[in-house]
Amino acid sequence: MVDHTEQIERIRRLAQEKDVLILAHNYLSDEIQALADITGDSLALSIAAAETAKSVILFCGVHFMAESAAILAPDKTVLLPNQEAGCPMADMVTPEGVAQMRKLHPGAPVVAYVNTTAATKAASDICCTSANAVKVVNSLPDAEVILIPDRNLGSYIASKVDKVCHLWEGCCPVHDALSADAVRTCREQHPEAICLAHPECTPEVLELVDHVLSTGGMLEYVRNSAQPTFIIATERGIACQLRKESPEKTFIFPDYEFICEDMKRVSIDDVERCLNTFEHRITVPEEIRLKAHRALERMLAIPRD
Ligand code: 13P
Ligand code: SF4
């Protein structure tokens, strides 16, 4: 394994000199999680971006995450170290798709998962993340809601709320491809383990697990649990924080290549280059930003637990 200690020190010094806050999603590589100021799930990182006093935010994650930071912190410079890091699910719905759903279900508010583009958020009423989705939907007075773009998260929310939920047919290709058989076999092999899954997994998988949680929710659950062994049904990058926070516990992943290639596109060399060149800057046209900001702010205004 390559020793990144010197490069991490160099990056930390540069970030300090240039007043840069480095955020990293829980799925990033170990070395990037090691150099970040803050690691977390989509909700925690959006809050950190909205609240920072630093003048620059360097986002180690995928495009929609950096875009959310640019929407919430318009006076900051927001940088994404690798422009190719996208999220296929975020591209599965467009503002035209939102308009189509509104036509089919007049009056129903549109709840957009944060894994959407700024333009789609701007066409929506309120955002949610995997950490607060049920709470966001329950905060709405309406009896019917439109949930975009993830049909798996949507059907999970539908199972938890007393509302008619109209779902868009999108999904995360990485979570959607985990089979129920792989989870069943893993549970049979480790009957003592508590099984945690991300709500982007299919309903057939979610039926087999003990708890459905965001990546931040999984970390919190494991931290507070007395159990020693866990089966984790989400991207393997989360193992970095799980092991760091709970080194005495055992984490098992189902037999599946649980890797999001987009999350892994940001390399430590990209981060160093980005700190030196300030490329690539993520901006959102002001007209779209204002509307998308309203949808994100409505979500952030909901009291947290
Ligand atoms: P979290 O908000 O749970 O970290 O999930 C983000 C994501 O992209 C999951 O695939
Ligand atoms: Fe998008 Fe799925 Fe990757 Fe998350 S894991 S960034 S939803 S493709």
Total of helices: 15
CATH superfamily of the largest domain: NadA-like
- Mean of residue pLDDT? 97
User: What is the correct CATH architecture of the largest domain?
Assistant: 3-Layer(aba) Sandwich
Order of helices and strands: HEHEHEHEHEHEHEHEHHEHEHEHEHH
Shape: globular
Secondary structure: elements and pairs:
Layout: H1 5-17, E1 20-25, H2 30-35, E2 38-40, H3 42-51, E3 56-60, H4 63-72, E4 77-79, H5 95-104, E5 110-113, H6 118-122, E6 126-128, H7 133-138, E7 144-148, H8 151-160, E8 164-167, H9 173-176, H10 180-189, E9 194-197, H11 203-206, E10 211-212, H12 215-224, E11 229-233, H13 239-245, E12 250-252, H14 268-277, H15 286-300
Parallel strand pairs: 1-2, 1-3, 3-4, 5-6, 5-7, 7-8, 9-10, 9-11, 11-12
Helix pairs in contact: 1-14, 3-4, 4-15
Bound molecules: 1,3-dihydroxyacetonephosphate and iron/sulfur cluster (SF4).
How would you explain this protein's 3D organization?
This protein has 305 residues and is of the alpha/beta class. It has three domains: 5-86 and 263-283, 3-Layer(aba) Sandwich (Rossmann fold), CATH 3.40.50; 90-171 and 288-300, 3-Layer(aba) Sandwich (Rossmann fold), CATH 3.40.50; 174-252, NadA-like (Rossmann fold), CATH 3.40.50.10800. Helix content is 43%, strand content 15%. The chain is built from 15 helices and twelve strands. The chain has helices at residues 5-17, 30-35, 42-51, 63-72, 95-104, 118-122, 133-138, 151-160, 173-176, 180-189, 203-206, 215-224, 239-245, 268-277, 286-300; strands spanning 20-25, 38-40, 56-60, 77-79, 110-113, 126-128, 144-148, 164-167, 194-197, 211-212, 229-233, 250-252. The strands form three sheets. A four-stranded parallel beta sheet has the order 2-1-3-4, with helices on both faces. Helix 1 (5-17) packs parallel to helix 14 (268-277) and helix 4 packs across helix 15. The longest helix has 15 residues, at 286-300. The radius of gyration is 19 Å and the shape is globular. The chain starts with a helix and ends in a 5-residue tail after the last helix. The model has no long low-confidence stretch (mean pLDDT 97). 1,3-dihydroxyacetonephosphate is lined by residues 26, 41-42, 115, 129-130, 172, 198, 200, 214-215.
